[in-house]
UniProtKB/TrEMBL annotation:
This is Phosphate transporter. Its main location: membrane. GO terms for biological process: phosphate ion transmembrane transport. The chain crosses the membrane at residues 42-63, 84-102, 108-126, 138-159, 171-193. It is found in: Membrane. It comes from Strombidium rassoulzadegani.
Length: 209
């Protein structure tokens, strides 16, 4: 096996470790901070969810990162591709671990996109990048926090008003409200299970001869 492939494979595992030290904490920090569930359960559930998500629901994101940011990436010489991916993995690992040690929550996906952007400019030039796709990704970085804030704000208001207001709302109404919220959660879970059952694997791009 090629030395660049071996090094990149090792760095991929190191990247997964670094993502666990930062991105996983972003999602699990609230459960830990509120002491809602024990630490061992948090780690187990987090590891299980990360595995299931990466295994069954990551195909579109992985395809975007591997083929849609740098144009005609697979048409480049294989040695070129290997060195570029090594650089991306190394850069991402170092930055994510540095951020983790600094206590700074960041996004591993954002880091990888930035690393791909830098590697693509140096290796193939500005014209090789899919700037339209990059613009869409950049826009999502600004839009997604706003959408999340609105949804979180709305859910918090709904839960507080409909399930905790014991003075003006009857017990029956509050119970029905909880059932409604539970049904919404069940619908989301059903959708995810459907994705797991009918998932599509990432199609491997054909390399140039």
């Amino acid at each position: 096996m090629d030395v660049w492939v071996i090094l990149t494979l090792i760095l991929s595992f190191m990247m997964a470790f670094s993502i666990g030290s930062n991105d996983a904490a972003n999602g699990l920090g609230t459960s830990y901070g509120t002491k809602a569930i024990p630490m061992r359960a948090i780690i187990f559930n987090g590891a299980l969810a990360e595995f299931v998500g990466a295994m069954f629901c990551s195909d579109k994101v992985a395809t975007t990162l591997s083929t849609d940011i740098i144009k005609d990436l697979t048409s480049l010489p294989e040695d070129f591709q290997k060195k570029m991916m090594f650089s991306v993995c190394l850069c991402s690992f170092v930055f994510i671990m540095t951020s983790s040690f600094s206590g700074m929550p960041i996004s591993g996906t954002h880091t990888v996109v930035g690393a791909l952007l830098g590697a693509g400019i140096i290796a193939t030039g500005y014209d090789s990048l899919n700037w339209k796709q990059l613009g869409t990704i950049l826009l999502s970085w600004f839009v997604s926090p706003l959408i999340s804030a609105v949804i979180s704000f709305s859910l918090m208001i709904m839960v507080s008003k409909l399930t905790m207001n014991t003075r003006s709302l009857s017990f029956r109404f509050r119970l029905l409200s909880q059932q409604f919220i539970t049904q919404l959660s069940f619908m989301m879970l059903t959708y995810l299970i459907d994705k797991l059952i009918n998932h599509k694997t990432i199609s491997e791009p054909q390399s140039s001869q």
